Automatic annotation (TrEMBL):
Highest classification ranks of the organism: Bacteria, Bacillati, Actinomycetota, Actinomycetes, Micrococcales
Protein topology in the membrane: Peripheral membrane protein
Annotated stretches, region: Disordered: 61-86
Keyword Phosphoprotein applies: no
Main location: membrane
CDD domains for the chain: ABC_HisP_GlnQ
Gene3D superfamilies in UniProt: P-loop containing nucleotide triphosphate hydrolases
Keyword Transport carried by entry: yes
Name this polypeptide is given: Amino acid ABC transporter ATP-binding protein
Source organism of the structure: Arthrobacter cryoconiti
Pfam families for the chain: ABC_tran
Coiled coil: none
């Protein structure tokens, strides 16, 4: 593998139980730089728990997560242009959950990945702009004027600059989710995580949000997307991973897994949704 293809995300042996309920049973996942992986599977199979583990919101019992390989090319120069100036030449960060993981390591993991939630999770008492700049200014300690300028550029890009002073309750679900996406982008993460980003939306609002995500994929962002929108996954994802009962049942190129799944469980699932 050439350095430029090194995975941005490497998950090994991730396991997690809630009480006696073993939700993840040794998950391995690789996401190469600039690639999109769609995570599909029945409700309760552990998809959200994986994403939350990648964003420091859940602490796995065992396994490891590595984010960000060094992406300099063989001649030592930086790799290809990154979306929106994302710093990709940080040394890789590995959290080994079989040992004790410190709050500082969790914070570092959260700094490299950003999550877009099913229910948007915007701060209701803050304006759109405040929602977007809060993380970069307060947590990442980046300069306020620069963060605001970037936030306004990103809001403009998704057609919401004129709503920057509005509060979330004044926006449609689709607009709130576009703010959720902008908030994630403003953190300049190496990895974008989407947890069923359109499943809370009225059907007529779904396409606008999916179009934004597709654009980000085309721009080269590295993403993991949990979704039930299989047609979208087929268009957007490079790889599809089908999970059931806390294990990966099947994985492969999106067209293969969605059109010609090898495993019977995948066949049943895909047939029902496509
Ligand atoms: P999916 O995203 O595939 O629907 P989840 O990762 O949300 O699956 O959930 C997997 C299982 O873990 C479910 O049985 C769910 O009830 C359980 N679970 C998730 N989060 C918690 C929690 N915080 N406490 C207890 N059980 C949980």
């Amino acid at each position: 593998m050439s350095p430029i293809d090194a995975p941005v995300l490497q998950v090994r042996g991730l396991s997690k139980s809630f009480g006696t309920n073993q939700v993840l049973r040794g998950i391995d996942l690789d996401v190469p730089r600039g690639k999109v992986v769609a995570l599909i599977g029945p409700s309760g199979s552990g998809k959200t728990t994986i994403l939350r583990s990648l964003n420091g919101l859940e602490t796995p019992d065992a396994g490891s997560v590595t984010v960000g390989a060094s992406h300099t090319t063989a001649d030592g120069s930086a790799g290809k242009d990154e979306p929106s100036g994302v710093e990709h030449n940080l040394p890789p960060l590995t959290l080994d959950f079989s040992a004790t993981v410190s709050p500082r390591e969790v914070a570092a993991l959260r700094d490299r990945s950003a999550m877009v939630f099913q229910h948007y999770n915007l701060f209701p008492h803050m304006s759109v702009l405040q929602n977007v700049i809060e993380g970069p200014i307060r947590v990442q300690k980046r300069p306020r004027a620069k963060v605001i300028a970037e936030a306004e550029r990103l809001l403009d890009r998704v057609g919401l600059l004129e709503k920057k002073d509005a509060h979330p309750f004044e926006l449609s679900g689709g607009q709130q989710q576009r703010v959720g996406i902008v908030r994630a982008l403003a953190l300049k993460p190496q990895l974008l995580l989407f947890d069923e980003p359109t499943s809370a939306l009225d059907p007529e609002l779904v396409d606008d949000v999916l179009a934004v995500i597709k654009e980000l994929a085309d721009e080269g962002w590295t993403m993991v997307i949990v979704t039930h929108e299989l047609a979208f996954a087929r268009q957007t994802a490079d790889e599809v991973v089908f999970m059931a009962d806390g294990v990966v049942v099947e994985r492969g190129p999106a067209s293969q897994v969605l059109r010609e799944p090898k495993e019977e469980r995948t066949q049943q699932f895909v047939r029902r949704l496509l």
